[in-house]
Amino acid sequence: METRRVRLLSDGLELSGELHMPTGHSQHPALCICHGIPAAPPDPTDRGYPLLAERFCQAGFLTFIFNFRGTGKSQGNLDLLGWTRDLDVALSFLYNLKETDRTRLCLLGFSGGAAVSVYTAAHDRRPSSVVACACPAEFRSLTEGESPLSRIQRFRDIGAIRDRDFPPSREEWQKGFDVVAPVGCIDKVSPRPILLVHGEDDEVVPLSHARQLYDRAGDPKELRIVPAAGHRLRVEESAMDLVLEWLRTRCGIN
After folding, report:
1. Could you tell me if 222 and 250 are in contact, meaning their C-beta atoms sit under 8 angstroms apart?
2. Which residue in 141, 196, 216, 242 has the fewest CB atoms around it within 10 Å?
3. Do 54 and 240 contact (CB within 8 A), yes or no?
4. Are the C-beta atoms of 106 and 247 separated by less than 8 Å?
5. What is the dotted CATH code of the domain comprising 2-251?
């Protein structure tokens, strides 16, 4: 396995990423992993996503992880509509690699990154399959009682909004969360397969969101509920086992 540092440009912002490449010179199924919306300042010792990328790479996937704008070492400020443009750039990067089998280009998203993955797949035909873990159906019910101003300040406090004059319009920034809400577009992912994975005891996104998304999604679709699991499914071994098995089956990896 080879790991390469990658720098991408999205709206003039530099995004930081890592490409994990399986051994061999043939084309491989590709996987783009999308992290969630941060709830705390970045922890430089947390190797959760790199370790996850290594695991999928060892299973045969050309795996790409990156930081959306406003997170990690990427530039910019947290903006969910901006995240959709970041993912478009990341998909173009993967799609154009000579090592990528373009017929097997998969998305794996977590929480807010899952919402962006569903939205992107609904508007872009390049993804061949989608896995959405702990995915919110919409965001308004998760932030009831919190004004856009207090929400912006919360992201400012954890370093995801960095510029004092951002956003130029609070209303437009908030509207981005409504536009990206998966419940309004998940049906457009069909006929490509989608897997929804949700923790039975998710303390951030209620399980009812997963059931709502499943009801709205077109076929083929599958909902897997992980017993006793919370919101951070990437650290749940049983959840990642079933995700890997599902992706391997869809991509024809033995």
Report:
1. no
2. 141
3. no
4. yes
5. 3.40.50.1820
Instruction: Detail the DSSP E strand segments found in the chain.
Output: 2-10, 13-21, 28-34, 62-66, 100-110, 129-133, 194-199, 221-226
- Closest by CA position to 72, among listed 115, 127, 23, 17: 17
What φ, ψ does residue 173 adopt, rounded to 5°? -65, -45
pLDDT per residue over 92-138, tens digit each? 999 999 999 999 999 999 999 999 999 999 999 999 999 999 999 99
Distance CA 121, CA 101 (A): 17
Exposure class string for 179-198: b at 16+ Cβ within 10 A, else e: ebbbbbbbeebeebbbbbbb
Distance, C-alpha 68 to centroid of its chain: 9
Structure tokens at 79: 């903006």
Nearest to residue 111, comparing CAs of 219, 230, 238, 224? 230
Torsion angles phi and psi, residue 159, rounded to 5: 90, 15
Write out pLDDT tens, residues 209-248. 999 999 999 999 999 999 999 999 999 999 999 999 999 9
Residues linked to residue 198 through DSSP beta bridges, in sequence order? 225
For the whole model, what pTM was predicted? 0.96
CA distance 128 to 141: 30
Rounded distance between C-alpha atoms, residue 204 and residue 85, angstroms = 25
Give the residue among 115, 15, 132 at the shortest CA–CA distance from 65: 15
